[in-house]
Amino acid sequence: EDIVVRGVTLKRDLARVILIGVPNQPGIASRIFARIAENKLVVDDIIQNIVEHASEANIGFTTSKADAREARMVCEQLAREIGVRSVELDEDLAKVSIVGVGMKTHTGVAAKMFQALADARINIQNITTSEIVISCIVAAADGEKAVQVLHRAFELDKEQ
Amino acid sequence: EDIVVRGVTLKRDLARVILIGVPNQPGIASRIFARIAENKLVVDDIIQNIVEHASEANIGFTTSKADAREARMVCEQLAREIGVRSVELDEDLAKVSIVGVGMKTHTGVAAKMFQALADARINIQNITTSEIVISCIVAAADGEKAVQVLHRAFELDKEQ
Ligand SMILES: C[C@@H](O)[C@H](N)C(=O)O
Ligand SMILES: C[C@@H](O)[C@H](N)C(=O)O
Fold first, then answer.
1. Coil, strand or helix: which one is A33?
2. How many CB pairs under 8 A join A and B?
3. Which residues of chain B make contact with A47, given a CB cutoff of 8 A?
4. pLDDT digits (tens, 9 = 90+) for A90-106
5. Which of A18, A48, A74 best tests the B interface by mutation, with the highest count of B CBs <10 A?
6. How confident is the model over B115-130, as pLDDT tens digits?
7. Residues A129, A135: Cα–Cα separation, whole Å
8. Atom of ligand 1 nearest to the CA of A50
9. Is the predicted pLDDT of residue A53 greater than 90, yes or no?
10. What distance lies between CA B70 and its chain's CA centroid?
């Protein structure tokens, strides 16, 4: 199908908090994000996978660098109340995204995006997708390079 | 800020494959999705979190129910080649999404969405977000009910 990647964006100064070993039952995500909202913390993306045959989940979210330490503190308090195995914070991150249209399936575009980052030896920490966007969280130091290699891979540098 | 949730969508007949304990180094995601693309498998969303202080990652992706078994087979072969701890398949899933505008931060809208699902005792298996969308993977049997409770929570049922 005719997939057209329109552009590449970079979001800098991100941090990520992840709650590991969260009980996988109704109401838990609600409690976590109600507390985050009460503390007026910024949330950019939320990324949750269930693991170990669905007995537990890992919930990560990206936030601004400014909110990172407070976000970790709020989540460590929640971890004690809810019974979460551990909370990890990583502060020097960036999000590089490609925006495409006509992506009925992400397979081809994702493979090309990941290949371009792999060739540049850039490690992908998180991946999220939506109808028209594929985003990768990378180390802050890799952000600029990631944009350059993706511009080249999707031939966007020709248009400029 | 003035967040307006425009609508709720439901995608049925989804399955999810997750690779657990994937080595977290450059080039791995590329190998996985190149193989998936070679096998012409449909990929809806990709959801990756890194865990255990970044030594490994869990990569989940949703696919059509029709491709589910083949996707698991392809990933089990990859798991042997790459050294992945385990591959899990879940076949009876649906994705419920809310689409909003003006979401500078997902905090408030996410908290409200998760609260509505929690009140209806609907378990959230995966969460992904983008600029204007928050999606939750739920059991296929919960899909319709999830749409109804979210319509009510965001007062979209009044407009119809
Ligand atoms: C882990 C968490 O998302 C839980 N499954 C819930 O529904 O709240
Ligand atoms: C786990 C996988 O995404 C790996 N970090 C990579 O960059 O390919």
1. helix
2. 186
3. 47-49, 127-129
4. 999 999 999 987 666 77
5. A48
6. 999 999 999 999 999 8
7. 6
8. 1
9. no
10. 19
How many angstroms separate the Cα of B12 from the Cα of each of A46, A142, A155?
22, 37, 35
Joined together, the tokens standing for residue A55 give 């007995």
Helix intervals (H) in chain B: 28-38, 68-82, 107-119, 143-153
Alpha carbon B57 to chain centroid, angstroms: 16
Nearest-5° angle of CA A43, CA A44, CA A46? 80
Partners of B50 in beta bridges: B57
Q: List, in order, residues 6 or more apart from B158 with CB less than 8 Å away.
A: none
Alpha-carbon span A21 to A58, nearest angstrom: 6
Residues in B closer than 8 angstroms to A110, CB to CB, are 33, 37, 43, 46
The Cα–Cα gap between A121 and A137 comes to 14
How many residues belong to chain A?
Answer: 160
CA–CA dist B17, A4 (Å, integer): 27
